[in-house]
Amino acid sequence: xxxxxxNHKALFDQMPVPRFLVExxxxxxxxxxxxxxxxxxxxxxEKNIIGATIEDLFTKKNxxxxxxxxxxxxxxxxxxxxxxxxxxxxxxxxxxxxxNPIFDGDRVLWLDVIAQPSATDTSIVQRERDDAFLLLSSIxxxxxxxxxxxxxxxxxxxxxxxFERIFGWNxxxxxxxxxxxxxxxxxxxxxxxxxxxxxxxxxxxxxxxxILCKDGSxxxxxxxxxxxxxxxxxxxxxxxxxxxxxxxxxxxxLRIAKDQADTANRAKSAFLANMxxxxxxxxxxxxxxxxxxxxxxxxxxxxxKYNEYCGDVNHSAxxxxxxxxxxxxxxxxxxxxxxxxxxAIDLKELIxxxxxxxxxxxxxxxxxxxxxxxxxxxxxxxxxxxxRQILINLTANAxxxxxxxxxxxxxxxxxxxxxxxxxxxxxxxxxxxxxxDEAMKPFGQIxxxxxxxxxxxxxxxxxxxxxxxxxxxxxxxxESAEEKGTRITITFPKTRSMTVEQDAATG
Length: 507
Prior knowledge:
Elements: H1 8-13, E1 19-25, E2 28-34, H2 36-42, H3 46-49, H4 54-57, H5 60-76, E3 80-82, E4 97-104, E5 107-115, H6 122-141, E6 146-150, E7 156-159, H7 161-167, H8 171-174, H9 188-201, E8 205-212, E9 218-229, E10 235-243, H10 245-294, H11 304-334, E11 342-345, H12 347-362, E12 368-373, E13 379-383, H13 384-400, E14 407-414, E15 420-425, H14 436-439, H15 461-471, E16 475-481, E17 485-491, E18 497-498, H16 500-506
Parallel strand pairs: 12-14
Antiparallel strand pairs: 1-2, 1-5, 3-4, 4-5, 6-7, 6-10, 8-9, 9-10, 11-13, 13-18, 14-15, 15-17, 16-17
């Protein structure tokens, strides 16, 4: 006769594999009972094991994996298999575990954790696959991305909360339905072909798909798909969906804006090309004819007033031509259309010619213009027209903003590294420190508008000079203080300093 009084504790203690009972405590789990094999496995005294947390008994990485499985078993109220855990360098081997909930009525009281006796047991592999599916589903239940699981016939067998929230469909709308129904009609064939290919090949893939929403709208989604093989030949496809409609809309707006900007830029280029011909040609005629009238080439005008007016016409036309040339030059530089016509430039001759031009403008202001040029200064390799324009712009600015009887100094020298430096300085009104950046911007106007007649101009003189200098690879430095004057230094790279031999070879 069989004795019905089974000693359950003896059975528990004498199990040939480690076994222990854990109880939920706060955010983790605490060991309440452990058998002899478990105590031996942990290589600790029983008093140190009972009451210990999972984190106390396992490494941080393994404890996180075990806690995740325990939480799933507690939440789902069902048995869970924990596969053999990774054997990290220096860590003890952790075998596969069975986790079984122990109920008190409908409440999970404890979790019974039993070590798997053999990793070769095929049933364990099957359970591991099923549990992997369970764990995956649990993870995606709280994920912020939409999740769909399809069977071999494309039927939706699982959908998470985020899919419902993002696209508006509920489980009643989706479960057991062909997922093709939720894709826009024009992408049906592509989605069907992709599904069959991914399911058979097991290839993971990412792409774009348009999803029909519950409210009739269309959402652009980024999908990632992977095949999931479970026990008994069961095969599913898991697809995550991220709504990227806002990003797609923004991309479309940016493309439209870029196309509009490109169109406007082409229109600007065409306008400027036309302006170059249409404005320069009549202005040159006005300048030429007015000069003939001022010089009375074909006889007297008959009145001194006419001669005065002709002088005004000639002066205004030249000023307008300067403005047009500055605008067109800046536009060409910004468009990258300027190519340097390089040659050896004698800076001494160039500066002397600039002095002569400037002398005529400063006669009535009692300004003094001086030059200081280093003896034996090498020629500068550059575009003569642009270097000349740089000096004209800087000198004209110095004249415009100088006080009467001030001194304007033009310097040219080579530094210790062999770099050629050009410097134009004045003793004029200067630029406030907080407005220097504004002065370097195209069309920047920094002075009082009420004084526009005094400081008239386009605001392109300095930006043009800087842009032309940078086309030569030069460094442009502006130093200024209010009522103390301005000093601008342009330093050309050493490669633009030409020796006598280089100068002769160039010639």
